[in-house]
Specification:
With about 500 residues, the protein is mainly beta. Among the domains are: about 25-100, no CATH class; about 120-145, no CATH class; about 220-290, no CATH class; about 335-495, Jelly Rolls (Sandwich). It is built from 3 helices and 28 strands. The protein has helices at about 1-20, 70-75, 410-415; strands spanning about 25, 35-40, 50, 80, 90-95, 100, 120, 125-130, 135, 145, 220-225, 235-240, 250-255, 265-270, 275, 285-290, 315-320, 325, 335-340, 345-350, 355-365, 370-385, 400-410, 420-430, 445-455, 460-470, 475-480, 490-495. A 6-stranded mixed sheet has the order 11-12-13-14-15-16, with no helix packed on it. Strands 19, 20, 22, 25, 27 and 28 form a 6-stranded antiparallel sheet that branches. The longest helix is centred in the N-terminal third of the chain and has 19 residues, at about 1-20.
């Protein structure tokens, strides 16, 4: 009996040794040679251990691993995670982290990736996602979408099949910037050419309009702006006309027109280079229409051209290079100053008899070139007794009153040039109540002294002074200049 037990034990050990080096089959007698364990079933499955993983970076709650080496060697351990926060589903241990087995399908699920950036390589071309931006072959897209290519083909191609009906837009860009504030304006579409432009005749095109078939006909290629989406164009450029589009002109309209038509376009460039302004059929290189239209050239206006002065029309000439220039007439005359009643209530001066000289009025003029200046004045004067603003002198003794002009670059220079006097004028006052024959003859009122003189002055600013002078000999008196409303001081420039 003992021998029988020994035989059974030896047979068991032999069978155990043999099975450890063979495949194990469950519910099958022919396990697959490539498998260690082959489970065969038609209505059953394998129930993988279900555990609660609260931290995917920790192997817990798996037990029995004594140290880091054993934890690392547990790589490929498979479990089913029941924790909804860390993600229910099958996970395997990669030696440091629990890795979920993907169960998402683009056909039915939204994919979520909490970590970024993420790069997906497809046949050597990278798709990059970072900070909500999408990049093709660029790891840090600058904007919502950025694509970079090193291949020799068209960078972007959009094709719409021939199924559109009505007015449809193949490619739309919408800018929802509310605007306002102090920031610069945003560009809805910005096109930058950073590389060298090709040396051929058609080196760089911002927009290329082409038809893959035959002649597209009239008014088919145009760029427009509208006040509202799908509204009538407010402005537009039409590059087609009744001829074939590549030989046609360009019409620019800035008033409302019907869709695709700029018949009211007010700027036209024909294929031969003729340009029309407010004219759609220019006959010359520049053709401007309109009964009251003209040309304004800022370089010829009064502010920018010293030949154009004081709103006096000047002739325009063409120089030997074909430039339009202003050329003054042989003699230009303009009135620089025309002062009426310029002394207000008057200026008085008085003497006990000696010569007295006094400034009556001063002004300045600016000349843009050397000119002959004519200064003329009319100065009303009243003669009264010394110290009195009214009254009559009737002693029969003469009083001399006179005026003249002096000129300088400033007041001090004019004083230094006092010997150079212009527009000298004078008068003598005499009244005698004891005239021969016993008749009394007394005269009183305004006396007008009128002066006129010419002086040649260089370009620059000059001070002009009107001087008054009185002489009474041994007898005093007062002279008041400008008490009427009719004194006048004029400066006329000849150049």
């Amino acid at each position: 009996m003992v021998n029988n037990y020994r035989l059974i034990i030896m047979l068991f050990i032999a069978l155990l040794s043999y099975s450890s080096w063979s495949q194990v089959g469950i519910n099958t007698t022919t396990p697959n040679n490539g498998s260690l364990l082959d489970v065969d079933a038609r209505d059953k499955g394998i129930l993988i251990p279900r555990i609660n993983i609260s931290d995917l970076s920790n192997i817990a709650p798996i037990a029995g691993l004594a140290n880091a080496l054993e934890i690392s060697s547990a790589e490929s351990l498979l479990v089913y995670n029941t924790n909804t926060s860390t993600g229910k589903g099958f996970h395997y241990w990669d030696g440091t982290t629990w890795i979920p087995l993907g169960d998402k399908n683009l056909g039915k699920d939204d994919l979520t990736q909490s970590e970024e950036p993420r790069t997906y390589d497809m046949n050597g071309e990278d798709l990059n996602f970072t900070n909500g931006a999408f990049g093709i072959n660029t790891p840090n897209p600058n904007g919502a979408f950025e694509a970079t290519s090193t291949e020799n083909y068209n960078a972007y191609t959009f094709t719409q099949d021939n199924s559109l009906t009505g007015e449809k837009d193949v490619f739309t860009i919408e800018d929802q910037d509310v605007g306002g504030g102090g920031q610069d304006h945003s560009s809805v579409l910005k096109v930058l050419k950073s590389g060298n432009i090709n040396t051929g005749d058609n080196g760089f095109s911002l927009i290329e309009l082409a038809n893959t078939g035959t002649n597209p006909g009239n008014n088919k290629y145009w760029i427009s702006g509208r006040t509202t989406d799908e509204g009538a164009p407010l402005w537009g450029v039409d590059v087609t006309d009744n001829d074939y589009w590549s030989d046609g002109g360009i019409t620019l309209g800035v008033t409302t027109n019907s869709n695709g038509t700029y018949s009211n376009g007010n700027f036209r460039v024909d294929s031969n280079g003729d340009t029309g302004i407010k004219n759609t059929n220019p006959q010359e290189a520049l053709h401007i229409s309109g009964a009251n239209e003209t040309i304004r050239i800022e370089s010829l206006n009064e502010a920018n051209n010293n030949i154009n002065i004081n709103s006096i029309p000047e002739p325009v000439y063409v120089d030997n290079e074909g430039n339009l220039i202003l050329q003054p007439t042989l003699t230009q005359v303009y009135m620089d100053q025309n002062n009426l009643n310029f002394l207000g209530n008057g200026v008085f001066m008085e003497t006990t008899g000696a010569r007295i000289t006094q400034l009556v009025f001063s002004t300045t003029i600016t000349l843009l070139e050397s000119s002959l200046v004519n200064i003329t004045y009319s100065l009303p004067t009243i003669i009264t007794p010394f110290g009195e603003s009214s009254g009559i002198i009737q002693d029969g003794h003469p009083r001399n009153f006179r005026s003249y002009i002096r000129v300088g670059t400033d007041a001090n220079d004019a004083l230094a040039n006092d010997s150079d006097r212009y527009g000298y004028a004078s008068a003598i006052f005499v009244n005698d109540e004891n005239e021969s024959g016993g008749n009394i003859s007394i005269s009183n009122g305004w006396y007008y002294i009128v002066g006129n003189g010419f002086v040649e002055l260089p370009a620059g600013t000059h001070t002009i002074q009107l001087m008054g002078e009185i002489i009474g000999g041994d007898f005093g008196f007062r002279a008041t200049f400008g008490t009427s409303d009719y004194e006048r001081f004029q400066v006329i420039v000849h150049r």
